[in-house]
Amino acid sequence: MSHDKKLRSQKAGLEPGSLVHLGEVKTSTPTLMLLEYDSNGLYEQELSSREQIDGLVRRPGCTLWLNVYGLQDPDLMAAIGKRFGLHPLVLEDILNTDQRPKVDDYEDYLYLVARLFDYVPHSRQLASDQVSIILGKDFVLTFQERPSGTFGALRERLRANRNQVRRLGADYLAYSLLDSLVDRYFALVEQVGDHAEILETSLINRRPRPGVLQSIHRHKRQITTLRRAIWPLREVLNVLLRSHDGFFRAETVLYLRDVYDHTVHLIESLEDLRDLLTGLLDVYLSAVSNRVNMEVRALTVVATIFMPATLIAGVFGMNFHVMPWLEHPDGFWFAMGLMGAIATIMLAAFWRRRLIG
Amino acid sequence: MSHDKKLRSQKAGLEPGSLVHLGEVKTSTPTLMLLEYDSNGLYEQELSSREQIDGLVRRPGCTLWLNVYGLQDPDLMAAIGKRFGLHPLVLEDILNTDQRPKVDDYEDYLYLVARLFDYVPHSRQLASDQVSIILGKDFVLTFQERPSGTFGALRERLRANRNQVRRLGADYLAYSLLDSLVDRYFALVEQVGDHAEILETSLINRRPRPGVLQSIHRHKRQITTLRRAIWPLREVLNVLLRSHDGFFRAETVLYLRDVYDHTVHLIESLEDLRDLLTGLLDVYLSAVSNRVNMEVRALTVVATIFMPATLIAGVFGMNFHVMPWLEHPDGFWFAMGLMGAIATIMLAAFWRRRLIG
Amino acid sequence: MSHDKKLRSQKAGLEPGSLVHLGEVKTSTPTLMLLEYDSNGLYEQELSSREQIDGLVRRPGCTLWLNVYGLQDPDLMAAIGKRFGLHPLVLEDILNTDQRPKVDDYEDYLYLVARLFDYVPHSRQLASDQVSIILGKDFVLTFQERPSGTFGALRERLRANRNQVRRLGADYLAYSLLDSLVDRYFALVEQVGDHAEILETSLINRRPRPGVLQSIHRHKRQITTLRRAIWPLREVLNVLLRSHDGFFRAETVLYLRDVYDHTVHLIESLEDLRDLLTGLLDVYLSAVSNRVNMEVRALTVVATIFMPATLIAGVFGMNFHVMPWLEHPDGFWFAMGLMGAIATIMLAAFWRRRLIG
Amino acid sequence: MSHDKKLRSQKAGLEPGSLVHLGEVKTSTPTLMLLEYDSNGLYEQELSSREQIDGLVRRPGCTLWLNVYGLQDPDLMAAIGKRFGLHPLVLEDILNTDQRPKVDDYEDYLYLVARLFDYVPHSRQLASDQVSIILGKDFVLTFQERPSGTFGALRERLRANRNQVRRLGADYLAYSLLDSLVDRYFALVEQVGDHAEILETSLINRRPRPGVLQSIHRHKRQITTLRRAIWPLREVLNVLLRSHDGFFRAETVLYLRDVYDHTVHLIESLEDLRDLLTGLLDVYLSAVSNRVNMEVRALTVVATIFMPATLIAGVFGMNFHVMPWLEHPDGFWFAMGLMGAIATIMLAAFWRRRLIG
Amino acid sequence: MSHDKKLRSQKAGLEPGSLVHLGEVKTSTPTLMLLEYDSNGLYEQELSSREQIDGLVRRPGCTLWLNVYGLQDPDLMAAIGKRFGLHPLVLEDILNTDQRPKVDDYEDYLYLVARLFDYVPHSRQLASDQVSIILGKDFVLTFQERPSGTFGALRERLRANRNQVRRLGADYLAYSLLDSLVDRYFALVEQVGDHAEILETSLINRRPRPGVLQSIHRHKRQITTLRRAIWPLREVLNVLLRSHDGFFRAETVLYLRDVYDHTVHLIESLEDLRDLLTGLLDVYLSAVSNRVNMEVRALTVVATIFMPATLIAGVFGMNFHVMPWLEHPDGFWFAMGLMGAIATIMLAAFWRRRLIG
Questions:
Q1: Residue B37's beta-bridge partner residues?
Q2: What is the mean pLDDT of chain B?
Q3: Among E286, E314, E335, where does a domain finish?
């Protein structure tokens, strides 16, 4: 069970809407980065105190983007909530960092949750951060547990105003955030896919290493983890595409449809990978079973050659006073010949049986 | 088959709506706890007799919460049913404690059934209690088989009027009850998850203990049991979210949506756990199979070394009068050398075959 | 393939609606039992001839229930069909006793098919009878292949007019019939469940008896059989709940919903049982595989102890003229010591390898 | 891949609607059988030339049924197409005999495709023919690859006018054709079911014959084949039941519903059979595995008895000058007793271990 | 992970709609082939420069078909996009050649993506190209990664104006393109099917070659690959059939329905093949397991015959001074007889046990 869930159960008994940060603290101090822009310009400011949030004055006609790294300060969150009129449940969900991706419609704004993943080489597992996006008519708020570099390129694009991106408003900004997230998933799915193909190559060439099974098991779990994040994200995008609540303009919806297609693509890739891994499990188990087969066969061959010969040696080692061949000068070679002949016949007989059955 | 179901079949032939308590008696005397409150105050009373129920006078504008522990007294139940205008089928369902979670809409009130679980360390199984909730316009009735402590924190919150909870009416109370139930599930799912992860760690490190299979089997059944309770509860919440019958106000529906999200989360966690356990079963079976493999290999090696050597010993133990080497002073060492050489060659040959196949 | 289906294929080529009884004859003579009742009284009569049916006069305002045991007399059926205006296809379906549960709406009446099961200890299988129920505005017809005792308690209740049941009309009667059927299923599902739990207990305690697999297989088939009957019955009830054709009054629909819930409950119990049996199959196969494992290990141990010792004995049995130790007075004990030492070392080595791999 | 599909790929590149017969030619010359009837009479004629089709005059008020055996003459087909106003795609589908069952609505007529099966004892597989049915307002056209005898009984019924079948028009005729087809399926499903039950009986009695696996595999494929034909046929019937295009009158729809029920029944039977076969596979594999188990055990017993005894014999065969017991007159029997004692003790020990693990 | 996806992740961070060709360059220079036609004639031209595209003048009333091979020149693509008013996202999707089949509706035109496959004998895998089709009111644009010969026959048909195909407009052209694609799939599915049947034949005849498992695994992956392309194509066709946006006239929709049926057929064939391969896996694993069984049995037989005989030989090789039979002139033959008798008895006993269990 993950660390997050442990914390959740500790919260049982608190009233709903109580602001307690449930989750690991992953960054030292919360950082608030404010961007405000329109076609004419872009204003950038780093906020650090509750007062600055309370005193925030909006530039008319501008799109505002407030990004928060680090969720451990409930007071700060409450101040933001108050300034932008967020529902207590939204704040609660932002702070409880084990939400599954979803979209909630609160008339004045949309609340979106998505998840970010990092491959942790040490534990060979995927670590997960929660990203909360709030889309209002002319503002976007984003909340992350720590800086991840996901939105850096987007920020650069806004500063440079490439393709006149600053002209396009809050809904396009929200789309761009989602697009950045989904692009990140592609890299992860590729990575899992590369590992799976290395496994496949090594298995098809019939050299099952020990640990293959554990490896398949681990990859399957990673796929499950990613699928659990992407599947509801697809649903979120589907809801956004079909809804008519005016948060997204028709022209932005075309772009959302594109991100939606990407999520479908990702899910299919993950399903293919899962099928591949299941197939590899079959191949592996069969290879192991073939091994046992080869070894049992070796054992059979060994026993088949040596048991009769050993018997013959034993027979001529008996101490009867009267025994055939013993006094014959070539008796020894007679016995050796007999051993060889029997071994040859039995081997031939078994080879033939193997062909039959 | 559980004890409850046994009792159900004994009821076959009775007319519908007949009040017979089907289920274990889990508490000595029924306890009735009455809470009535509005923004101004909270009145608390413990009822003990049928007459007190019949004579119950409502305080106007107040929200009433009547909680019943222990269902073994049909007369008492009938009195409550009469006082609050409950349909005979509702009373029957309250008393038959093997209902699956559901919601029934009876115009004047909603009838909700949910299930509570306790982990019984002794039998390593989950024991289940039924919780019935009846939500009217300004009252909530709850029926439990025994005190479980689930609603204690909520009762405290009402008494302390934290966040002005007393102002929020019967629908918010019903929501809070459901929220308490779902929070309890998180603890159980965590516990199963912890056990599963211990199993995983021990299996991945390749030390399958005996009893692993029984353990996986038991955990799978616990997951099935929890899933059977949470899945229909999710449906119940979904129905409440989508219905427009006026029992829940728009602002409470936001909170219900939150509980709904939690149940979805729980179900996904259970599915992940089931996938994990199925994967562990594969890992376990493969580990066992690898074991057999190792032992067959050991047997092959032993046979390969000793059978030819034993044959050579037997050959030189034969009693032929004329045999080579016997009279040579180093004959014994010739034979020993031959044994060693053959063993070495055969081992080498088998090692090479192992590399090939 | 069941006996019923054999008969069905014999009917190929006959025109639709032709009245041929397809099914085993399970009772000697058809019995027709007529009950007519209202709040004031109940009239009971046993009909025996075609003429009595033709001449049947309805008491105005009364609810009529005609129950038929034994379907082998097509003329009698045709008479009933004519008297109550049944469609030829209905009569055909009543006589072909391998229908799956369904409801057909024929404007003037509903035609319901359900199935009854009996556990036949002899063949350890479930035998199945067809029950046809026709619900008109003020009459109910029931057709069974033989007396089964399922509706006896209901008949008693009508005679005694408990809970004023006679006041409640034909739709309540139809509900009561369905309720009796579903109650019967509970007993069967319990029985299968009991057997499954006995199997589980014996397997978890690690003593797989021979025949366990056959037993699991048989139980799985029984579950499939029951599921095939209950699943469509649930659909039938669902259709009745959602339809607005006026055969069921609003107050009876509440009761139908109750039976519907019971069928959902039954299906879930069957699915749990199927999961349980599948899990037991895994446990069983693994127990068998563990057995092989133990025996291969025993074989390895035996070979490991004795093969080197036998070789040493053989070596000192060789007839070389010059051999070490032979003439030493303690030579024999040297050899014995060598055997023991090698056996000890190899055992130790294998035990260590077993711990490693 | 079947012969039909091979032919289809040869058609790649031709324009759509081009009339090429794709499929084996299964009959020597096409036969066209014309029936025209109303309540008053029935006129029957065999057509043989293109001109006869072009010159066909309809009797007003009559229902026309034209049945074609053999599809290898595209000109003839084109003539029929022209005479009855068929769309080029319909003709193409009639001639490409690997269609899956479907219904296409072409305003003036419905085009139905179904499949007929024959069990070919030689290859133990199911051979499949395509049956095309075109239902117009007052005519029915049927196209088959060869005479199959499926519609013979129906033709007889029309000639005899049993149950005044001639009065019932083209839609009832189309229904009767579908009914005949479905009745045929029952026979096939029964046959597969009989084979499966023979397999089951032989397996449950624990005598797995070689070839059982191949047999299970073959039956599974037959079931898949049948399911592939019946499943879409059910969909076709469902579409006909729900459509309101006026080809079927309300009274015929009742009969169609009956055929629909039969297809549902068939599909369930096939699913049961598939479950049964999957279960049998488990039973078979387990029986085989039990066998290996028994034989490994036998091997263990043999080794356990003889290895120690052989060692003792070897020990007393050593040539040490000083050895205990050798000169004792009962030394031989001491040794024999020792062998027997050790064998007994080891056997006992192993039996006990077997009981433990 | 495929080459395409690798490239996609390199694109992360670029703004949406940026024209970068993601995919292998599969042809040297882009080729643009222009066809314009109406009932009266057909004009054909090869375009090679950006200027020719910019200066393109439409012949009124004509249908235009512009086919592009090779996507590596973004400028050219941008010029086409500008000339025909394509959305930046369409151009992006055309250039990113790992799209899954889909249809996007952009008011003025439809954008369709499909995939082409080639079997690469070298790697025994399927290579995939992307085909983009844009259908406007009177024009069709097609974009392929390289010449594949798929549309050659169609081009010939247009030039020859067979069946007056030139009269039928842009929607019929788009249909014809899709039809050509689907016909190509049939050939591929056949090929996979042929391989699967060869595998089946060889397995049913009980000669499992090494590498069978790898072969099954490879075929399963090919089937998955094809399914991933055909399944969404079916959805695309379904959308086109159900949409009412006027791109397809009613008469062309009939033809589309035909292609739709073909895709359904293909999917079913693939599912059958997958079932077949899964079944073959079972057969193969069981054959391998039978092998082990046969060899263990052989080992048992060998051990059973020789162990007792070797013991007897050892016994009479002991050096006791007093031993029975040794001095008897036929003692040797007594011993041999004893060996033979015991071998016979044990063999008989084991044969009987085999019959029992």
A1: B42, B63
A2: 87
A3: E286
D30 and D170 assigned to the same domain: yes
Amino acid found at C116: L
- Is D243 found in the same domain as D207? yes
Asked if the structure places residue C291 within a domain, the reply is no
Pairwise CB contact (< 8 Å): C276 & B306: no
Q: Is residue A273 part of a domain?
A: yes
Domain of residue C96, CATH code: 3.30.460.20
Q: Which residue of A has its CA nearest to B343?
A: A302
Amino acid (1-letter code) at residue B285: L
Q: Give the whole-angstrom CA distance, residue C46 versus residue C30.
A: 11
ipTM of this complex: 0.80
**A171 plus A249 within the same structural domain:** yes
* Residue C304 forms part of a structural domain: yes
Return the residue matching tokens 């844009």.
Answer: E134
Q: What share of chain E is helix, strand, coil (3-state, %, to 5)?
A: 60, 15, 25
φ, ψ at B202 (rounded to 5°): -70, -30
Nearest-by-Cβ selection for E190 from D5, D13, D16: D5
Give DSSP secondary structure letters for B203-257: HHTT-PPTTHHHHHHHHHHHHHHHHHHHHHHHHHHHHHHH--SSSS-HHHHHHHH
Q: Is D120 helix (H, G, I), strand (E, B) or coil?
A: strand
CB contacts, 8 Å: E321 with chain A? none
C221-257 tens-digit pLDDT: 999 999 999 999 999 999 999 887 789 999 899 999 9
Interchain CB distance below 8 Å, C319 and B314? no
Alpha-carbon distance of D263 to D183, in angstroms, equals 10
Q: Could you tell me how many CB contacts below 8 A there are between chain C and chain D? A: 162
- Tokens 């050959």 -> residue: B315
Could you report the per-residue pLDDT of A49-102, keeping only the tens digit for each? 888 898 888 888 899 999 999 998 888 999 999 999 999 999 999 999 888 999
Where are the alpha helices (H) located in A205-249, listed in sequence order? 212-242
| Residues on chain C touching B97 (C-beta within 8 angstroms) | none
Give the distance between the most distant pair of CA atoms in chain C: 123
Distances (CA, A) of D20 to B182, D286, D327: 66, 52, 101
Chain E residues within 8 A of A119 when measuring between CB atoms: none
pTM of the model: 0.84
Nearest chain C residue to D201, by CA = C214
CB-CB: which of C1, C100, C295 is closest to D190?
Answer: C1
Instruction: Please tell me the total count of domains within chain E.
Output: 2
Q: How high is the pLDDT of residue C212?
A: 83
Please tell me whether residues C85 and C210 are part of one structural domain.
Answer: yes
Residue A278 and residue A328 in one domain: no
Provide, as residue numbers in chain E, all residues whose Cβ is less than 8 Å from the Cβ of D17.
163
Burial of E58 by CB count in 10 Å (0-12 exposed, 13-18 middle, 19+ buried)?
A: exposed
Q: Do E326 and A323 touch (CB under 8 A)?
A: no
Question: For the domain that residue A341 is a member of, what is the CATH number?
Answer: 1.20.58.340
Contact, C193 vs C273, CB < 8 A? yes
Q: Are residues E271 and E305 in the same domain?
A: no
Verify that A154 and A189 share a domain, yes or no: yes
d(CA B272, CA B269): 5
Q: Pick from A97, A51, A35: which is nearest to A71 by CA?
A: A97
Same domain for E252 and E303, yes or no, is no
Q: In terms of residue numbers, what domain contains B301?
A: 297-356
Residue after which a domain boundary falls, among B286, B313, B345: B286
Chain D residues with CB-CB distance to E280 below 8 A: 217
Nearest CB to C300 within list B228, B285, B295: B295
In whole angstroms, what is the distance from residue B133 CA to residue B116 CA?
13
When pLDDT is averaged across residues D262-281 and rounded to a whole number, the result is 93
Residue A265: inside a domain, yes or no? Answer: yes
Q: Chain D closest CA to C204's CA: distance in Å?
A: 13
